[in-house]
């Protein structure tokens, strides 16, 4: 009994100590608040960032709230939870959809550690989307006959694109064209064949009435109308198909006469159209035989032809010798 009385004060001290520890653990100062809170805004994309909070042997989450200018003035500083940025494990969150007008917005973040919560940390200065940083769009060029095709970087539905193009080394005359979207390639029509052209672009955001800087110029050579070249090739092939056979035939005739020269038929073998008479003539070597005109039978006619041919052939061979 006496022993219990001696231990009672110690038990009371331990109880009070645990109560104090519990009170400290439930206080916001146990969980450190986020630091270096800021908004990074590029091309109308707004991302809130902060330095990560490290708690040994424990995973923390973060929760964000937003307050617009209207809510601050008319609703007595009403903060709203951002559902996409509630209880997240990363130290950044996209708040683009929460920033819908060209007014001041305040944002704040806290750390959640189990049942414990840190203090809220807000931006040092409210954010306005008109301060977003606009970058020049990236572009690439290619040609299609007499046209230049421009492919633009798609930066989103808030952007218009202003294109400027000119002949290389002749920047006194500059053409321009404005397009509302970059999802489809842009055709530049006013160009000349076999000329170098340069193109540059900038973006325009109507919601904030601001333009980006110009992109670096990109140049390309326009070769000409490919369809015209195809027609020239087509007619060239067609003409070749028609002319080459004739040329080949003429060459074959020349080669034939070169290797197989034509022999002149002896005059004594010249036969009239009528098969009933045979006329032989040889002015140089004399008559092979006297010309005779008479009606003969077919059998005699064959014999007559044969005899006359042999005599005339012998006579011609003698003349050559």
From TrEMBL:
Ranges where the Interferon/interleukin receptor domain occurs: 150-222
Q: Which residues form the signal peptide?
A: 1-26
Q: Does the keyword Transmembrane apply?
A: yes
Cellular-component GO terms for this entry: plasma membrane
Please provide the record's keywords in A-Z order.
Answer: Membrane, Receptor, Signal, Transmembrane, Transmembrane helix
Domain Fibronectin type-III spans what residues?
A: 13-120
Gene expressing this chain: IL20RB
A Gene Ontology molecular function term for this protein is: interleukin-20 binding
Under the heading Pfam families, the entry gives:
Interfer-bind (PF09294), Tissue_fac (PF01108)
The protein in question is named Interleukin-20 receptor subunit beta
Any stretches that span the bilayer, and where are they? 228-249
InterPro entries xrefs: FN3_dom, FN3_sf, Ig-like_fold, Interferon/interleukin_rcp_dom, Type-II_Cytokine-TF_Rcpt
């Amino acid at each position: 009994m006496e022993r219990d009385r001696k231990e009672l004060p110690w038990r009371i001290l331990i109880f009070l100590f645990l109560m104090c520890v519990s009170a400290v653990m439930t206080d916001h100062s146990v969980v450190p608040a986020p630091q270096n809170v800021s908004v990074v805004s590029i091309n109308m994309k707004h991302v809130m960032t902060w330095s990560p909070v490290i708690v040994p042997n424990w995973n923390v989450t973060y929760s964000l709230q937003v307050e617009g200018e209207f809510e601050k003035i008319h609703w007595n500083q009403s903060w709203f939870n951002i559902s996409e940025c509630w209880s997240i494990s990363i130290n950044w969150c996209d708040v683009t959809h929460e920033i819908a007008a060209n007014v001041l917005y305040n944002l704040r973040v806290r750390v959640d550690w189990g049942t414990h919560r840190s203090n809220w940390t807000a931006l040092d200065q409210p954010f306005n989307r008109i301060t977003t940083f606009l970058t020049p769009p990236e572009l690439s060029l290619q040609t299609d006959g007499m046209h230049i095709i421009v492919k633009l970087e798609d930066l989103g539905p808030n952007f218009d694109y202003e294109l400027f193009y000119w002949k290389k080394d002749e920047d006194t005359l500059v053409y321009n064209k404005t397009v509302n979207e970059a999802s489809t390639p842009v055709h530049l029509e006013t160009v000349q064949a076999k000329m170098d052209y340069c193109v540059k672009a900038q973006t325009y955001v109507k919601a904030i009435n601001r333009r980006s800087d110009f992109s670096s110029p990109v140049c390309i050579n326009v070769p000409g109308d490919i369809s015209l070249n195809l027609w020239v090739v087509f007619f060239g092939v067609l003409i070749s198909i028609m002319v080459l056979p004739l040329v080949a035939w003429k060459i074959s005739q020349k080669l034939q006469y070169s290797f197989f020269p034509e022999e002149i038929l002896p005059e004594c073998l010249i036969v009239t159209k009528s098969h009933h008479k045979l006329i032989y003539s040889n002015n140089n070597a004399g008559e092979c035989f006297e010309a005779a005109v008479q009606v003969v039978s077919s059998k005699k006619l064959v014999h007559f032809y044969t005899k006359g041919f042999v005599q005339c052939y012998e006579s011609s061979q003698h003349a050559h010798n």
